[in-house]
Amino acid sequence: MSFVLDSSVLSRFQAGLRKTGMHETSIATHLRHLRAALGWAVSMRLLPKVPEIPMPKRAKGRSLMRGRPISTEEFERMLAAVPAVRPRDVETWVRYLTGLWLSGLRLEESTILSWDDDAPISVELDGRRPRLRIFAEAEKGHQDRLLPMTPDFAQFLALTPTAKRTGPVFELLGLQTGTPITAKRISRIVSAIGKRANVVVNKAEGKYASAHDLRRSFGTRWAGRVKPATLQLLMRHKSIETTLKYYVEQDADDIADELWKSFPPAVSGAEAAAHRQRPKH
Questions:
Q1: Cα distance between residue 85 and residue 134, in whole Å
Q2: Residues 222, 101 share a domain
Q3: Is residue 225 a contact partner of residue 77, using CB atoms and an 8 Å limit?
Q4: Long-range contacts (CB closer than 8 Å, 24 or more residues apart) made by 195-204
Q5: pTM
Q6: Does residue 67 belong to any structural domain of this protein?
Q7: 55 and 86: one domain?
Q8: What is the pLDDT along the chain (281 residues), one digit of tens a residue?
Q9: Is residue 255 assigned to a domain?
Q10: Does a structural domain hold residue 276?
């Protein structure tokens, strides 16, 4: 009896995942990995073609973000939670989280950020303005870039003594091995800190603050200060639509604060009554 892998089989597979209670975003991730594997099978001539894979439809109006930007108060809670997660190298991880918060770098980029000129991503503090030099092999868009550096991140880096400005900017080492920690391990540690601080960024999926949520926070902070095109450059988004969708729309509370700033303060009932009882001249 032969087995035919077609779209109907994949639809039943998707339905089975859904019966287990798996979230739609997780199902979509599984299907994307499966599509990649099937593509490899086709390239190896194990399959004639990749069957059509029905992907879960996103609910109308649902945010594309699996997480969200975190507030300053939540970030401070994460810093306070570091000693509980990394008691033996607290300062190193507080400095690293602060660097992510101020730089907007992706996690993988932060691990190779260096003071050395020939590094894939290097710091330049000696020019007219501080900036980052990013070579194509380290850039998601696969092109060399000179990236303006935000003033607060430049000031943060300037705190490093000149004599120590060599090698990785963030040297995250294993406590037992003394060797650099992998990006996956760093990601898990940051998420563990977010969980310890109880900073929930996605209640539906039970997701706690991650390194990427710190990058999102960088985007939202600067969205209110710079033009969309400038923010796109800082975030290095390929499409301006990505910048607009994720970061430029201001939070409703921020807009409300702006509206109320120029509005006369409310008069209490007691004050109004007192005003009515004043004698008229």
A1: 32
A2: yes
A3: no
A4: 196/81, 196/84, 196/85, 197/74, 197/77, 197/78, 197/80, 197/81, 198/77, 199/70, 199/74, 199/77, 199/78, 201/67, 201/68, 201/70, 202/66, 202/67, 202/68, 204/23
A5: 0.68
A6: no
A7: no
A8: 456 777 778 788 888 887 787 767 678 777 887 888 888 888 888 888 888 887 776 555 444 456 789 999 999 999 999 999 999 999 999 999 999 999 999 999 999 999 999 899 999 988 889 999 988 766 665 667 788 899 999 999 999 999 999 999 999 999 989 899 999 999 999 999 999 999 999 888 889 999 999 999 999 889 888 888 898 989 888 888 878 876 545 555 666 676 777 777 665 555 555 555 655 55
A9: no
A10: no
The boundaries of the domain holding residue 228 are 72-248
Q: How many residues appear in the chain?
A: 281
Contacts of 112 (CB under 8 A, 6+ apart): 119, 120, 121, 138, 168
Distances in whole angstroms, Cα of residue 142 to Cα of each of 120, 121, 252: 12, 13, 36
Query: Does 142 map to a domain?
Result: yes
Same-domain check for residues 81 and 12: no
Asked if 179 contacts 164 with a C-beta cutoff of 8 angstroms, the reply is no
- For residue 84, the domain's CATH number is 1.10.443.10
Instruction: Tell me how many domains the chain contains.
Output: 2
